[in-house]
Amino acid sequence: MVVALWLLAGGAAAGLFGSLLGLGGGVLLVPLLTLGFGLDLRAAVGVSLVSVIMTSSAAAGVYLERNVANLRLGMTLELFTAIGALVGGLIAVLIDERLLAILFAVLLVYVAITMLRARAPAREGVTVRDDIDVGDDPHDTRSAPFDGLDVQSAALAGLSGDSYTVRHLGRGIVGSTGAGVVSALLGIGGGIIKVPLMHVGMGVPLRVATATSNLMIGITAAASSIIYLLHGEIDPYLAGPVAIGVFVGATLGSRIAHRIPLRYLTLAFVVVLLWTALQMFLKAL
Amino acid sequence: MTARHDPHSHFERRLGRLMIVLTYVAVGFLAVGVILMVRAEVSPMAEAPPFDPRQVWSDLLTLQPDGYLWTGLLIVIVTPISRVAGAAVGYVQRREPIMALVSVAILAVIAISLALAIATS
């Protein structure tokens, strides 16, 4: 009873902070389950994948209803994240758990650095402002929308929105495949890779990139969770309370996000991420 | 793939609604499963029985927590897949062959995941 409540509370905390900080719950959940509850890493990844699908499905449903997500772009890229997730899911059951822990620690450091850079003013051209429409930059000759009859231009035109033009589809395909592999290996949604990839790399406005990433996360995690499920790596007694907790926390987070000053929360969170990365490294050694 | 992103697509809204409904149904099953688990004093750290599709239905009928938890988890996993299947039907109806093909290709990758998982488990 007490453990179930702790799992619910832990899941809720992961969902809440993940939602407030724009991360999926997986980045927080896997360290929580391994370091806090003593689960082995693969079991934690299995539980995390289910929780990630649940929160991303709820969010993606709302984004689709409100017509924020770009379904065509999301589906085109998720074909490649699903292939990456399939490969990652197969690799994950074969490789040493200590190597997985090291990879997760590296991921945490990457997320911490990304969050620190996002806090800084947009002096490097990487912006997190929601109102910027990267694809409409008139000085960017790479965009060149509808300037030819070649296949790629036609494809990009079909994937673009009314107010922006998608570019660099090849970059998106390669990045999405990599995000799928990482997601399956480490039990994360992969939004931390997909959102910058679409926003900075492909010229998709941040709001659309976030919504479209949520769509893709579900299929990415579903492809690998099937492998985890049939290999007995998803424990229903653990996944049930954690998934409900994450769902409740993420729902609450999305409602109160606009009232919370995120500046110091982000900084504190970066410290927690780096500390967790250190613990994961020590666990692996 | 020449059609531009339709800003008021009824079809996309329906897919969104499908995902929301399935998510809430999954949460419902998982919540019942957790309540039954607590009532039966099953510790979350106890070893869970392996997934057996033949057992799920009888567990549901006899109010066993495992049946509700597995059903909830399966609905969670199926939700994004059903969105892709729905999109495939929608794109066929809208005569967008390339997007229909992309949808079917995603479903094929999922099917390969399933086949490989069965083969290697």
Describe the protein's architecture and organization:
The complex is a heterodimer of chains A (285) and B (121). By secondary structure, chain A is mostly helical. Chain A is 73% helix and 0% strand. Chain A contains eleven helices and no strands. In chain A, helix 2 packs antiparallel against helix 3. The two termini of chain A are 33 Å apart. Chain B is mostly helical and 121 residues long. The model of chain B has no long low-confidence stretch (mean pLDDT 88).
Tags for this entry?
heterodimer; A: 285 residues; mainly alpha; 11 helices; 73% helix; 0% strand; B: 121 residues; 4 helices
Rg result of chain A: 19 Å
Number of strands of chain B: 0
What does the overall shape of chain A look like? globular
Structure classification of chain B: mainly alpha
Question: Approximately how much beta-strand content do the residues of chain B carry?
Answer: under 5%
How far apart are the termini of chain A? 33 Å
Strand/helix succession of chain A: HHHHHHHHHHH
Oligomer: heterodimer
Major sheet description of chain B: none
**Which percent bin holds the helix content of chain A?**
over 70%
Which shape of chain B, going by the Cα principal axes? elongated
How many helical stretches of chain A? 11
Q: Can you write the helix and strand succession of chain B as a string?
A: HHHH
Total strands of chain A: 0
Profile the largest sheet of chain A: none
Indicate the structural class of chain A: mainly alpha
Radius of gyration over C-alpha positions of chain B, nearest whole angstrom: 18 Å
Average pLDDT confidence of chain B is: 88
Strand-residue proportion of chain A: under 5%
